[in-house]
Write a structure and sequence with these properties.
It contains 14 helices and 14 strands. By secondary structure, the chain is an alpha/beta fold. The chain has an 8-stranded mixed beta sheet with strand order 9-10-11-8-7-12-13-14, sandwiched between helices. Strands 2-1-3-4-5-6 form a 6-stranded parallel beta sheet, with helices on both faces.
């Protein structure tokens, strides 16, 4: 496609999906500087877009489920909070935008595709929520994709093969979740001491997850007093709330709240340090092992060569079922401990300095490959 003015409508429905979509937008813009975006995150504030200097069209309220509906109770709570009216308003916006754009790209699940699919043009779809390794697409989903999709980019080869057998325009050009920044910024941690990374998630359930994680950390400090901890803070989480939680578990804030990396020392153990940072890549890179109660962040950490230990958490994204599915998807580097009381021992067991040879580096950005293919095809 010639480098002319193109307007792309981006629709995503989830924190991890926003991360993937923002990477894809930047790759598209690198290939075509004249490209314009209309961006509609269906869930949350679209903070990953904003961090990448991409303007979003809509702002969304936070519903009880955090946008992760797995049970009837999750759905009922969101409906009571006005979900239906919010969906109708989003549909109106999307229908208006559909008339003004050249390409529609949906990143998420089949609901995201239904919400965002173009009426005058078929849609590009990145089905991030499905894989034949854990949850294959149903016949209904395949029928809808056949009706609405011009291009489909799957997260793995086996899913791509299955969709092709069903005569769908599927391609596998890599998984954008595997893409990593080449350089990471150093964190204010002792480089000679073991580092534990904490991935609590990005939704409301992250706060009770943090409380539990910090309790486990205190248990670990009894036998590992020089432990360094890095908590990867999602932009959607409140800094002040996390600071208060840290204080309740014996951590004393040593830095100004305005700093990028919040530094804490333990009130009893001087050799241990806690850092709360929004620099996700640096937290993963620095950690010897990670305690993960999240979705996309767990997967990224494993894809980047790290061991992640998880257990049942305190919300719909951190259930035993979710982590059992993740284990089937990710293999033995995701260690699911079904009993919360045993997770500290599991973390200590796997708190070993990582072998540099195990790191997985992607030589080519999947976002760039997909962006290049989209522009060439359309």
């Amino acid at each position: 496609m010639e480098k002319t003015d193109i307007t792309v409508l981006i629709v995503s429905n989830g924190y991890g999906e926003d991360w993937i979509a923002a990477r894809l937008c930047l790759a598209l813009r690198a290939l075509n500087p004249n490209i314009q975006f209309e961006i509609v995150p269906l869930v949350g504030e679209g903070l990953h877009y904003l961090k990448s200097d991409l303007r979003v069209r809509t702002q969304n309220p936070i519903f009880p489920s955090g946008g992760f509906i797995r049970t009837f109770n999750d759905l009922y709570g969101d409906l009571k909070a006005g979900l239906l009216g919010h969906i109708f308003e989003q549909r109106k916006i999307l229908k208006t935008l559909d008339k003004k754009v050249d390409i529609v790209i949906c990143i998420g699940d089949i609901f995201c595709l239904w919400m965002g699919h173009g009426t005058k043009i078929k849609t590009v779809f990145l089905p991030t929520a499905k894989s034949n390794l854990i949850d294959p697409h149903s016949k209904l989903e395949k029928w809808l994709m056949r009706r609405w999709c011009r291009l489909i980019y799957t997260r793995d080869k086996i899913t791509c093969t299955d969709l092709k057998v069903s005569s769908l325009p599927a391609h596998f050009l890599g998984n954008i979740m595997l893409d990593k920044k080449v350089e990471t910024r150093p964190l204010p941690l002792n480089p000679n001491a073991p580092v534990l990374g904490l991935l609590p998630g990005s939704r409301e359930e992250a706060y009770p997850n943090v409380d539990f994680m910090l309790s486990c950390v205190n248990d670990m400090l009894l036998s590992q007093p020089n432990l360094q901890i890095c908590l990867a803070k999602a932009p959607s989480l409140s800094t002040k709330r996390l600071v208060e939680q840290a204080k309740q578990h014996g951590w004393i804030l040593k830095s100004d709240l305005s700093q990028d990396n919040l530094l804490f020392s333990h009130e009893i153990l001087d050799g241990s340090t806690l850092v709360i940072s929004e620099n996700f890549e640096s937290c993963v890179e620095t950690s010897w092992v990670l305690f993960g109660l999240s979705g996309t962040a767990n997967e990224q950490a494993v894809y980047w060569g790290k061991t992640v230990v998880c257990c049942p958490g305190f919300g719909p994204q951190s259930t035993a079922l979710r982590f059992e599915e993740q284990h089937r998807l990710l293999g033995d580097r995701l260690i699911f401990e079904p009993h919360q009381q045993n997770v500290a021992d599991q973390l200590l067991k796997h708190l070993v300095k990582p072998n540099e040879l195990l790191k997985k580096e992607t030589s080519r950005s999947s976002a760039h490959a997909i962006a290049e293919h989209i522009l060439a095809q359309l």
